[in-house]
Design a protein that fits this description.
Helix 1 packs parallel to helix 5 and helix 7 crosses helix 8. It is built from nine helices and 15 strands. About 10% of the residues have low confidence.
Length: about 300
Amino acid sequence: MSGKMMLLFNPRAGKGGSRAALGPVIEVFCAAGWQPTVMMTQARGDATRLAREYAADFDRIVCLGGDGTLSETVAGLVTLPEAPPLGYIPMGTANDVATTLEIPRDPVRAAERIVAGSAHPLDVGLMNGTDYFTYISAFGAFTEVSYETRQESKQALGHLAYLLEGLAALPKVTPTHAHVEWDGGELEDDYVFCGVTNSISVAGMVKLDPGVVELSDGLFEVILVKNPRNIVDLGTVVRNILSRNYEDPHVKVLHSAKVHFRCDTPVKWTRDGEAGGVHDDVTLENLHHAIQIIL
C-alpha cells in the first residue's frame, strides 16, 4: 500500500536524534511509494492540533518523537470520525509504548515496519471526559519525575535521568487517602502510588507481565500501592515492583474498563509522562478500539 502520509516530527524528542533520523526515514517511505508531508511540532499541543486539523486528508499518519508526542497525536486522532492508521517511530527517552508494542528503537527499522505492517486496533484512555492518554494515568511516587525532569537532563543522560530523579524523590513520598472504585469492587486506603495503565512498561523501569496485558481488550491494568510503614518497607516495595514481583502485600493489580478515584486532598496526576493537572476526583475510562496502529 502507498499514498499520502502525514509525518509528525518532534525535533526535540529524547536526545535530539530525531533530526538526524528524519532524512533516512523519509527515504524509506519514498522508496515504498508513499508521499510524506512533514509537519514539525514547535510547542506543546502542536501534535494534537495538527492531527485534528489535517489527518483526515491523509492515508496514514506517522509520529516521529517520544511517548509525549505520540500521546498528543493520539489525542488529535480520536476526535476524528474516521482517523487513518497511525505509525510510530520512537525517539524519546523512556519509549514505554515502543517497548510494549515491540517497535524497534532504530528509526529506519521502525519505518520499514510501518511500510510492511498492517493496522491493529488499540485502546485509548479518557480522563474526566476531556483528556486522553495512550498508556498511563497516575498519581503518587515517581509520577512527577517524568514531567519535572529537565529536558536538558533527558538529552544528556537519557533514561538515567529518570532513575536519578526518582531516587532523589523517594524520601519525599507522602501517601494519599483515596477511595477507588472499579468494575469488580471498591477499596479505600492510604496509597503512595495509583496507576491506570495500558502498557507493560512505565517510565522504562516498572514492568508488567506481558502475559496479563492485552492492549486491545477494553481493560486497563490498575496498580495500587498501599502506604508502607516506613522508608525501609517502601524501598522493599519499590524493589519488588521493579523486579515484577507483585506478591507484595502492599501491591494490588486489577483489571477494569472504568476506574473512579476520590482523594481526600487534591493530588498531581500524570498522563503519558506529562503533567495531568491537580485533581481530587478522577474518572478514567477505556475507549475500546479507539484508533488503529500499524504493527
